[in-house]
Amino acid sequence: MESTRQAYPFALNLDSWPSLGTSCKSSIRDPFGPLKDPVARLLKCIREDVLDKPVKTVVIAGGGSAGWITAGRIAARNAQGPDAVRVILIESSAIGTIGVGEGTWPTMRNTLRKIGIKETDFIRHCDAAFKQGAKFVRWTDGTDADGYYHPLNPPQAATQINLSGHWQRLAGKGGPDFATAVDFQASLCEAGLAPKSITSPEYAGIANYAYHLDAGKFADLLRDHAVSRLGVIHMVDDITQVHQDEEGDITGLSLRSAGLVQGDFFIDCTGFASLLLGRTYGVGFKDCTDVLFCDRALALQVPYERDDAPVATHTISTAQDAGWIWDIGLPTRRGVGHVYSSRHTTDEQAEAALRRYAGPMANGLTARMIKIRAGHRETFWTHNCVAVGLSAGFLEPLEASALMLIETAVDFIADRLPARRSVMDVLSRQFNRAFLHHWDRIIEFLKLHYILTKRTDTAFWRDNCDPASIPDGLLERLELWRHHPPGPGDFPHQPEVFSWPSYQYILHGMGFETAYDGLPPLAGEAAGAQRAFAMAERAREQALRDLPRHRQLLNAIREHGLQAV
């Protein structure tokens, strides 16, 4: 693939420039204008004309989940009405997708709704299941009894009272673990119950939820919907050349078969290759393997022993000697994978650990290797090009942040699509500031899971606790949290990708030692906390009584469907 910059022609026969406005031509011919050189005046006028150019064609390079979420959201939001934009997506048939991003955040419900996909259709077509959080096994001390939940529900009455210190006083008297004390969702996961019933409307639930899904089928559903319902132009071809103007803006992409495709705004969804942002613009990559050591993953798709086997309604993350194993339940199979550090184990040892975990149903299956280059681009939007998905960066899937970052980026782009080139630089600065912050906070939150461990049995866990590998901001917050529970004041940037309740679930789940259980409660807070704990208990009793088994609900949705909104 080549990159070219097209020089402006210098011919001053203005009648041959029909795109230039009358006032622009007059200023060029004006001998008393501020620029005496007519060529300089022409270039200035052309540049101003380019900056004032409306954005009418959006070109997305690359498919997969990133490309098709982007196409669907922009087309649904901006491809209708008198100011409609044209959306073109170009993907190569020779480049496969990673296809293991099987976990989402609750944000996916809004994304699907905005694109116009029914939840029933999504569940049926994507082999999807409900996700209510994650269970972390053997992360704290490595024993069989070691496990805690990070549910998707916030703690009871979180907007009125911070229950952290109150729970610590309760736990000191032999009370339940934090997730169980402040909410009912961990109990739903333990019981294998769904977050809603068949009578719940689409995208509504008794408990907060996300999804587990088949990533390949998901991209296919998004593509079919975007092309047939939203008018996205789909081109299967290889990009051979990137064309730029003198200022560096991309003007078009040459394709091997179809020739030149021109556009006004370009979105790089070309995955790890990062053809536009990385190769064309040379934007550097910020490596973070000094913080997050895991750089490889082995993935298996494991069938169930029987058709009616329970389907877990949460991600199970089980710590290993040099990493961790994910276990994701879909209706027809489990997605099981080992994320590990090649500096602390060999590929053969990692695969052996994976197969021991997966059991005999994995016999004969070939594990797929995925190399992880943990980190992100130094900037994400330059000129008239923005990177979304793997072209922007990638981190291990410990908290399923990959699809969420795609959604967050596309929300910004679709809801604030620049009407003209002249506002694009302002938007790019806002976007870059926001996403540099998001990536930093995600890296810190993932690292938090490793540094709270009490395991010292292998070099991997010992090295993770080395202060030199811990970001300064995280060390600073940990010192604060030894004396004051995490709260909204600790995270002034809004919105945060991980809010303060998420930090509480991890800190308390892993037994982080604090000194604020002895802090005197504010006036009236003790009674409010007792009411909140009682409300959580009543909600748990009702949910355990009323909600169906997870597989039972998935079967009912396939047969009957959910109530349309």
Automatic annotation (TrEMBL):
This is Tryptophan halogenase. The keyword Coiled coil does not apply. PANTHER family: FAD-BINDING PROTEIN, FLAVIN-DEPENDENT TRYPTOPHAN HALOGENASE. InterPro entries: FAD/NAD-bd_sf, Flavin-dep_Halogenase_NPB, Flavin_halogenase. It comes from the Bacteria. Keywords: Plasmid. It comes from Niveispirillum cyanobacteriorum. Pfam families: Trp_halogenase (PF04820). The keyword Cell membrane does not apply. GO terms for molecular function: monooxygenase activity.
